[in-house]
């Protein structure tokens, strides 16, 4: 072996701590970069990628089997413009009830029944095919009688294969076993069974129904898909095509979901990538700088500057290579649960780290290691030998002495003042710790803010359950909405209103009813909620303007205003059954009900449309100290049963959103990962620093510094940096939150109220600022304990 | 029987491989003695000093100093023992370059929790006694080798230790500075300070040691009392 090879080998083998630190740093950075890059790739048009991967159906068409034979349907594959087909598959609408014997959240024994929405179930022998390759999230495909696979979009999260699925409304209520959870990106069906099983589940009297899945040569726009549909309709007997679904409408829904996720997933990924790059740069250059004295010795022995540079770049690259390899493995292993959460959020089925990321990230990391090792190695290689040996004894004397003197005068135990003064002696190391902590603090601040915002949004997005009590149509005869399309209303709202008014404990109440109208410029029907009484205490959070206060005024959410092309101060015309009314928009609400399209106004505003508009519910606020149970009992007696029933709003209105729950879980995972990387960044730096200071530590210990004092000194050496970095990171995190949160809102077509974005208050900010201290302390704890445990004799012998 | 400050019984020390650094050594040192430990490189001199200081633990046998079984002390108790009973002087001074002379000297007292005023007074007294008070606010890097070793001695004496350990205290000094330190240690011993010093410097041993032992391959081969301890 050449002298250079021996130097590299001994440098890697003998300096085990430094080598371990380099391996660990590269491992963490590569693993997180793979996750970050994977998230970024997954966030680029996730629906389109998943749709392409599954060869999703451009058109899902349903046929009446009594009007077209299966052969005729199969023949549509040869229709003009059709590039691929799957089917015909028999389909049936089924009412399903999920029965669980295990609580999906706790894993404990339970007996839970969950009624699912009516499901379109297809009889399909295989998940594969030329079109709509259904992806299994878990379990297996239903190939035998008695088995069923359900769509992940139909069942609640955490449901696993093995549950029982009861088909209600069928003679004998047959029971199936859930064998898999799957996802069709094009939403071709809600469940799948074997063809024989579907035949068994279809009543003989019912006309057979079939599904065909099509891909077309041209299907980029809705008009192209409509033209393709017309070709299919013409290819089968008249009236055989009973329904169809374009992938574009599915895509629109999916994109509106992912729109809320993409901004913060991308933000976390970018923070992670930057953190990884910085940590690699700082730790590698720090390791080479720490070996400067050895470079001097090599030069004294006759090594040329080029050999020195090669030796040190080699010494950095070998552990980095090992770390990069391990990082790829760890990154891919970590990606399984994380990408699973993202796939759940994006509703795209299994997401994997692309192969090119597995090659590009380690290659980039190694290039970075080479570059960052090269700079200090070149500098040391150019220095005169004596100079290298002199400056190589770290730290360079004289740095920050004045501040150290000042800190030494503080009335603190000496171990603490020594620790506090240390950052000024090693500014570059201090900067490394600071950068890692700043990133960690940014991530935590951003995540905490998002969490606060999501909680506020959860509360504000739907105010139908405002108040403590709601009076709803009871079990007795219910009147239908006067305009035909509305929700059930109270049979005698005047009597209900009188009873509520007289009831002791009532603080305020208002009536509300829903209906649908047409608004010029908007093709679909627009939901309107009309209020009776003072509704100001139950007002939605306003993005701008104010709540309505007089007939003729209305408020509407952001998406409606955009759709109708109106602003606050403009008027809109609501029409129904040939009658119309003009309302002036006085405020923009934060309102996500009914896809953010609900116009809200006083009932008196709609008298032109319908003078007999009746309340569908009454929301009631109670006087402080009122006992809810007693109030409900008393009010229900007064209401007399039948037509109206008072219930607790908490029982009727569930304000939780599954999307927000998934978001919160994803944010928690990403934050935990980022904080872990930040902590490891601090740990790496403090390990290197402690190794360099080991002789000084030996001196301290020889003079009587106890292990506890040693730990305190090392922890204090990062405490001030952590605190300052926390103070820097918190405002940056707040700024990132202030930038990303509105983008998330825009992703789902709404502005977000300022109150839901301005969620940081002094106590939270103070606690978040201390987060930097915690991250720094957590990173320094292990090396501090190691320093305390090092035998004094060994430390003193260390050069 | 006279009082014993250090009692070493059958002490041995083995490192990873090779022969033992110390091999079943027996040694007692009385208060007021100035013991010079001589011997060639690798004979176990520094190992002996480290065992007495509690910097290292023997592989076998016992080390008792002032009634304390040093070989049985944990890290925290060992640190306390060093703070209260031991002062150490090293060949290369081991002064902290970023602390002033006064701050270096104050360090053991501050680690022991001595009051600020008392510590400062003691430091000034020591610096004056050792003739380096004019350098009180200087940094060690600006002092001569002899002056630096005086600072190290001042630091070692800060907590009034019953035992001063010196590892080659003149090893890194020029002749004039070496003479200076020799005289200092002689004077300290004359004032009643018990000293154990490891040295190759026969002049130092001649000048200040009241007793000389010689180690070869970890074994005691010579024990010579020059005079009655003062």
Automatic annotation (TrEMBL), chain A:
Q: Does the keyword Nucleotide-binding apply?
A: no
Q: Where are the transmembrane segments?
A: 21-42, 261-290, 311-335, 355-375, 433-454, 665-690, 711-740, 765-788
Q: Carries keyword Transmembrane helix?
A: yes
**Which GO molecular function entries does the Swiss-Prot or TrEMBL record give?**
transmembrane transporter activity
Single GO cellular component annotation? plasma membrane
Question: Keywords of this protein's UniProt record, alphabetized?
Answer: Cell membrane, Membrane, Transmembrane, Transmembrane helix
What is the membrane topology here? Answer: Multi-pass membrane protein
Enumerate the subcellular locations listed in this protein's record, separating them with semicolons: Cell membrane
Q: Which residue spans adopt a coiled-coil conformation according to this UniProt entry?
A: none
Q: Which residues form the ABC3 transporter permease C-terminal domain?
A: 267-382, 670-784
* PANTHER family reported for this sequence: ABC TRANSPORTER PERMEASE YTRF, MEMBRANE COMPONENT OF TRANSPORTER-RELATED
Family statement drawn from the similarity comment of this UniProt entry: Belongs to the ABC-4 integral membrane protein family.
**Descriptive protein name:** ABC transporter permease
Say which species the protein is native to. Answer: Streptomyces beijiangensis
TrEMBL record, chain B:
Taxonomy, top ranks, is: Bacteria, Bacillati, Actinomycetota, Actinomycetes, Kitasatosporales
Please give the Gene Ontology molecular function terms for this protein. ATP binding; ATP hydrolysis activity; transmembrane transporter activity
Name a single GO cellular component.
membrane protein complex
Q: Entry's InterPro entries?
A: AAA+_ATPase (IPR003593), ABC_transporter-like_ATP-bd (IPR003439), ABC_transporter-like_CS (IPR017871), ABC_transpr_LolD-like (IPR015854), MacB-like_ATP-bd (IPR017911), P-loop_NTPase (IPR027417)
Q: Which family does it belong to?
A: Belongs to the ABC transporter superfamily.
Pfam families assigned: ABC_tran
Domain ABC transporter as annotated: residue spans: 6-229
Q: What are the alphabetically sorted keywords of the record?
A: ATP-binding, Nucleotide-binding, Transport
| Species annotation | Streptomyces beijiangensis
Question: What protein name does the entry list?
Answer: ABC transporter ATP-binding protein
Q: Which Gene3D superfamilies match?
A: P-loop containing nucleotide triphosphate hydrolases
């Amino acid at each position: 072996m050449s002298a250079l090879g021996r130097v590299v080998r001994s440098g890697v083998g003998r300096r085990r701590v430094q080598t371990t630190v380099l391996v660990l740093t590269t491992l963490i950075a590569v693993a997180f970069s793979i996750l970050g890059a994977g998230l970024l790739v997954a966030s680029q048009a996730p629906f389109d990628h998943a749709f392409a991967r599954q060869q999703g159906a451009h058109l899902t068409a349903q046929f009446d089997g009594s009007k077209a034979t299966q052969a005729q349907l199969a023949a549509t594959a040869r229709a003009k413009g059709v590039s691929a087909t799957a089917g015909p598959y028999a389909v049936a609408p089924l009412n399903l009830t999920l029965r669980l014997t295990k609580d999906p959240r706790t894993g404990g024994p339970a007996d839970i029944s969950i009624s699912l929405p009516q499901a379109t179930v297809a009889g399909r022998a295989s998940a594969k095919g030329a079109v709509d390759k259904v992806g299994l999230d878990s379990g297996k495909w239903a190939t035998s009688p008695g088995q069923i696979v359900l769509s992940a979009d139909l069942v609640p999260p955490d449901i696993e294969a093995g549950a029982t699925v009861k088909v209600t409304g069928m003679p004998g209520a047959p029971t199936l076993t859930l064998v898999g959870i799957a996802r069709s990106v094009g939403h071709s069906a809600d469940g799948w069974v074997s063809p024989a099983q579907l035949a068994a589940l279809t009543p003989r009297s019912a006309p057979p129904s079939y599904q065909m899945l099509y891909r077309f040569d041209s299907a980029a726009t809705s008009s192209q898909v409509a033209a393709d549909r017309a070709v299919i309709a013409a290819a089968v007997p008249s009236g055989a095509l009973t329904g169809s679904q374009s992938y574009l409408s599915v895509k629109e829904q999916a994109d509106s979901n992912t729109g809320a996720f993409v901004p913060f997933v991308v933000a976390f990924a970018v923070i992670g990538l930057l953190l990884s790059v910085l940590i690699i740069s700082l730790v590698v250059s720090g390791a080479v700088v720490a070996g400067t004295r050895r470079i001097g010795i090599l030069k004294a022995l006759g090594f040329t500057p080029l050999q020195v540079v090669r030796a040190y770049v080699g010494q950095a690259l070998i552990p980095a290579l090992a770390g990069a390899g391990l990082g790829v493995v760890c990154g891919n292993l970590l990606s399984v649960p994380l990408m699973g959460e993202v796939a759940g959020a994006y509703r795209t089925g299994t997401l994997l780290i692309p192969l090119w990321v597995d090659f590009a990230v380690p290659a980039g990391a190694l290039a970075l290691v080479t570059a960052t090792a090269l700079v200090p190695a070149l500098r040391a290689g150019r220095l005169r030998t004596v100079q290298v040996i002199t400056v190589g004894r770290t730290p360079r004397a004289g740095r920050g002495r004045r501040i150290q003197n000042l800190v030494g005068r503080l009335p603190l135990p000496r171990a603490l003042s020594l620790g506090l003064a240390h950052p000024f002696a090693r500014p570059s190391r201090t900067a490394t710790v600071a950068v890692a902590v700043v990133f960690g603090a940014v991530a935590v601040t951003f995540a905490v803010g998002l969490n606060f915002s999501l909680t506020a949004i959860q509360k504000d997005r739907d105010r139908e359950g405002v108040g403590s009590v709601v009076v709803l149509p009871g079990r007795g005869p219910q009147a239908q909405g006067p305009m035909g399309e509305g929700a059930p209303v109270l049979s005698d709202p005047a009597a209900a209103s009188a009873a509520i008014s007289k009831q002791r404990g009532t603080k305020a109440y208002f009536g509300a009813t829903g209906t649908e109208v047409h608004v010029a410029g908007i093709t679909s029907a627009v939901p309107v909620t009309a209020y009776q009484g003072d509704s100001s205490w139950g007002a939605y959070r306003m993005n701008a303007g104010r709540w309505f206060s007089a007939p003729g005024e209305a408020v509407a959410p952001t998406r409606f205003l955009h759709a109708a092309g109106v602003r606050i101060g403009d008027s809109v015309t609501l029409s129904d059954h040939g009658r119309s009314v003009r309302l002036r928009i006085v405020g923009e609400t934060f309102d996500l009900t009914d896809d953010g399209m609900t116009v809200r106004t006083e009932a008196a505003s709609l008298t032109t449309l319908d003078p007999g508009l009746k309340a569908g519910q009454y929301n009631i606020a109670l006087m402080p100290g009122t006992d809810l149970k007693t109030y409900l009992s008393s009010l229900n007696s007064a209401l007399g049963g039948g037509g109206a029933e008072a219930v607790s709003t908490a029982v009727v209105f569930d304000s939780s959103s599954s999307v927000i729950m998934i978001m919160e879980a994803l944010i928690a995972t990403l934050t935990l990962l980022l904080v872990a990387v930040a902590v490891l960044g601090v740990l790496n730096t403090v390990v290197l620093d402690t190794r360099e200071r080991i002789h000084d530590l030996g001196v301290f210990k020889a003079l009587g510094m106890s292990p506890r004092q040693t730990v305190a000194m090392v922890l204090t050496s990062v405490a001030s940096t952590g605190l300052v970095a926390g103070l820097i990171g918190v405002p940056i995190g707040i700024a990132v939150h202030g930038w990303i949160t509105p983008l998330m809102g825009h992703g789902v077509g709404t502005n977000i109220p300022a109150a839901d974005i301005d969620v940081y208050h002094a106590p939270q900010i103070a606690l978040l600022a201390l987060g930097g201290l915690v991250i720094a302390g957590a990173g320094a704890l292990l090396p501090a304990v190691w320093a305390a445990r090092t035998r004094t004799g060994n430390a003193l012998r260390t050069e | 029987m006279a009082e014993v400050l250090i009692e070493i019984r059958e002490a041995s020390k083995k490192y990873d491989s090779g022969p033992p650094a110390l091999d079943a050594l027996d040694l007692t040192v009385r208060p007021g003695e100035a013991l010079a430990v001589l011997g060639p490189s690798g004979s176990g001199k520094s190992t002996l000093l480290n065992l007495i200081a509690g910097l290292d633990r023997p592989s076998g046998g016992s080390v008792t100093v002032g009634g304390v079984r040093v070989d049985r002390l944990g890290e925290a108790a060992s640190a306390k023992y060093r703070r209260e009973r031991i002062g150490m002087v090293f060949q290369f001074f081991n002064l902290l370059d970023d602390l002033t002379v006064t701050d270096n000297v104050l360090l053991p007292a501050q680690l022991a929790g001595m009051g600020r005023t008392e510590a400062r007074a003691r430091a000034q007294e020591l610096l004056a006694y050792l003739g380096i008070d004019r350098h009180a606010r200087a940094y060690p890097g600006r002092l001569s080798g002899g002056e630096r070793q005086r600072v190290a001695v001042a630091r070692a004496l800060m907590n009034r230790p019953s035992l001063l350990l010196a590892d080659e205290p003149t090893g890194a000094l020029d002749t004039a500075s070496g003479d200076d330190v020799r005289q200092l240690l002689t004077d300290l011993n004359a004032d009643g300070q018990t000293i154990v010093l490891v040295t190759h410097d026969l002049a130092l041993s001649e000048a200040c040691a009241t007793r000389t032992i010689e180690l070869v391959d970890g074994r005691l081969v010579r024990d010579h009392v020059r005079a009655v301890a003062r």
